[in-house]
């Protein structure tokens, strides 16, 4: 779907990105890089129908396929805050003709705020809110190499999130000012073995997939 936005607000977010100053190697830094503002110039210029018609006239009058390309800006932002947020970390890099596993620890927290990465007109966010908070409830970890390895998971056993139910079933935006992670006990699951673990153990894992549920 293509829509025309006010140029003054097209690249605005719910919270100021410049105040974020994310730590390198953190999930905030990954999100910041993924949603950064990109300039499309030279061979990456954007085909502009308006500029083409202004220069050559209506499209049906253009005998030879001549088009006008213009410099532009591009930015990936969240337009609808989901009830459940799944973050998939890229755990490989190109090394010549081979793929190499990335084992670097990415720092993440139990509560994250997506507001700096959401459009100023983000759906499912109550008017006037400048925070979009999520609480961690699951992590998938991969150990091994690109050719072989083992998947394990961390899951939090917790009470029902009524705000999440309202959002999924009725489309209501959360109103309560919940800023703390959902209380519960973390467990580590590896095949048939299940063991209770601390939150610090979860946060030190080599996350491959992160699962968050909406708080605010």
UniProtKB/TrEMBL annotation:
One of its GO terms (cellular component) is nucleus. GO terms for molecular function: cysteine-type deubiquitinase activity. It holds the Pfam family UCH. Residues 1-215 form the USP domain. Keywords: Hydrolase. It comes from the Eukaryota. The keyword Thylakoid does not apply. One of its GO terms (biological process) is protein deubiquitination. This is UBP16 hydrolase. It comes from Alca torda (Razorbill).
């Amino acid at each position: 779907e293509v829509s025309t936005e006010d140029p003054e607000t097209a690249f605005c977010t719910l919270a100021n990105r410049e105040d974020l100053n994310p730590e390198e190697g953190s999930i905030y830094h990954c999100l910041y890089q993924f949603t950064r503002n990109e300039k499309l110039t030279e061979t990456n210029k954007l085909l502009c129908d308006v500029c083409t018609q202004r220069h050559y006239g209506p499209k049906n009058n253009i005998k030879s396929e001549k088009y006008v390309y213009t410099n532009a800006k591009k930015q990936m932002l969240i337009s609808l805050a989901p009830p459940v947020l799944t973050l998939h970390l890229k755990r490989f890099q190109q090394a010549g003709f081979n793929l190499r596993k990335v084992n670097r620890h990415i720092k993440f927290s139990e509560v994250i705020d997506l507001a700096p990465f959401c459009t100023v007109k983000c759906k499912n966010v109550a008017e006037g809110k400048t925070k979009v908070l999520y609480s961690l409830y699951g992590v998938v970890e991969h150990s091994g190499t690109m050719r072989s390895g083992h998947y394990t998971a961390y899951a939090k056993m917790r009470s029902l999130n009524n705000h999440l139910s309202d959002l999924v079933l009725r489309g209501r935006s959360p109103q309560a000012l919940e800023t703390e992670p959902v209380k519960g006990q973390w467990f580590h699951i590896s095949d048939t073995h299940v063991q209770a673990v601390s939150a610090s153990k979860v946060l030190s894992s080599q996350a491959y997939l992160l699962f968050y549920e909406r708080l605010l």
